[in-house]
Amino acid sequence: MKNFKVILILATVITCFALFAFTPVPNNFIDIYKSADYTISSRRESSNSAWIKWVYLTKKLKDKKGRFITVGGKQNLQLWDCDCSSKNYNIKNWIEYGRNGKAILSSQIPIYNQPVIPESVG
Q: What pLDDT digit, counting tens, does each position of 92-114 carry?
C-alpha cells in the first residue's frame, strides 16, 4: 500500500510539473512510469488536464494447486485536472477495463482538491 502511495504521488508530481511541457502526438500516450507490474502513461488533454492510464501487465502464476493462472491485464483510465499553483489535482472521470477490454467500472463523480504531498519522491 505504501508503494502504491509513492507511485501515485510520483505520477501526480510528474503530471503537474512536467507533463504539460510536452506536446505529444494526438491520441498517443507518453509513458511516465514503468515497473514489473504496471505502466503509467499520460496524454495531454488541455493546458492543465490530462488522461492518465494505468496498465496492469499480464502475468502467469501458479495457484495453490500448482496450476498456472493468468493475472493482471486490467487498465484504468482517469481524467486529471491539475492546478500547479495550489499544488492540487482533481480526478474528473475514470473507467476501468478488464483483461478482455470490456468496461467493468466507471465513475463521473469527481474527486476534488487532492493535494500533492510536499517533499514527496518525484
A: 888 999 988 899 988 877 777 77
pTM of the model: 0.66
- Cα angle at 32 between 107 and 71, to 5 degrees? 60
C-alpha grid cell, residue 28 = 498517443
Q: Within 13 Å and on the Cβ side, how many CA atoms surround 85?
A: 1
**What DSSP string runs through 53-73?**
EEEEPPEEEE-TTS-EEEE--
Cell numbers linked to 59:
502475468
E strands, 3-122, are 30-34, 38-44, 49-56, 59-62, 68-71, 75-83, 88-97, 103-107, 111-115
Alpha carbons 89 and 100: distance in angstroms, whole number: 30
Reported confidence tier of residue 25, pLDDT bands at 50, 70, 90:
very low
